[in-house]
Amino acid sequence: MAKTKKYQVTKAKDFQLSEYKTAIELKLSKEEIKEEIEKNIKDLKDHQEKLYAQDRKGVLIIFQAMDAAGKDSMIQHVMSGVNPQGCVVTSFKQPSTLELDHDFMWRVHRAVPRRGDIGIFNRSYYEDVLITRVHPEILLQERLPGVDSLEDITEKFYTHRYKSIKQFESYLAREGFVVLKFFLHVSKKEQKNRFLRRIELPEKNWKFSESDMKERTYWDDYQDAYEKAIKATATKANPWYIIPADDKWTSRLLVSEIINEQFAKMDLAFPSVSAEQEAALERSKKVLEKEE
């Protein structure tokens, strides 16, 4: 078991993203890491069954990262054991015209999982304080009151958005939803290697576009935007987890362990059966046993 506490960010006053490693070495072989992940996947399956049966709480898992950090494969692998009936993955793309006619959290609230379900956000509402920092001109298309030029997009604007996000997450917690926020922390060097693989391997060509290279030129700006967002929204109740992501298997192990740790704290159990229900079950059993 890896020690996951050190990847958690709660009181983020002095948080600096550069102090967190993108690669670590565990005292496990690659095969041992894979075995641990498989155990975690099985445990998660058991947790999900109880979550679904109890139908009192919900779980929202958020993945944020730079391009090629492994979000898609993380979701595909770690969540491979859960029942698709109780798990929904949402990817937030460029807002539609309808979505732009509402507040920036409107489309997010519509995608929050039901009680008993696991919801996964592949990117999330945090894009509204990340990509808009790097490309503030995007906000001029949103017809926001008081935002008519780039000069209107001040630090106060983002402070208000951070506050809205924290309030939203606190509201979800009060309503019985656990919010898990993961930043897959990949190095610029490893992103380069993964981009090259996408270019060199025909079966991966579809994953790459020239726009990826354009965004790579804003690397430092994105790192700064992530640092500000994490610092402003990490709390004890809803912390961030900074996951070293240069090695995908290591990152999968850490994420799977953290998810299971949080599930274990939720006091999940299959619903108890009343005396009346037990009697009904016994009657049904007798009827079935009499059948030839």
Automatic annotation (TrEMBL):
Task: Give every Polyphosphate kinase-2-related domain span.
Answer: 27-267
Classification via Pfam families: PPK2
Q: Does the keyword Kinase apply?
A: yes
The EC code for this enzyme is: 2.7.4.-
Q: What class of enzyme is it?
A: transferase
What keywords are annotated for this sequence in UniProt? Coiled coil, Kinase, Transferase
A single BP term in Gene Ontology:
polyphosphate metabolic process
SUPFAM superfamilies in alphabetical order: P-loop containing nucleoside triphosphate hydrolases
The parts of the chain that form a coiled coil are 27-54
Q: GO molecular function, one example?
A: polyphosphate kinase activity
Q: Does the keyword Coiled coil apply?
A: yes
Give the protein's recorded name. Answer: Polyphosphate:nucleotide phosphotransferase, PPK2 family
Source species taxonomy: Bacteria, Bacillati, Bacillota, Bacilli, Lactobacillales
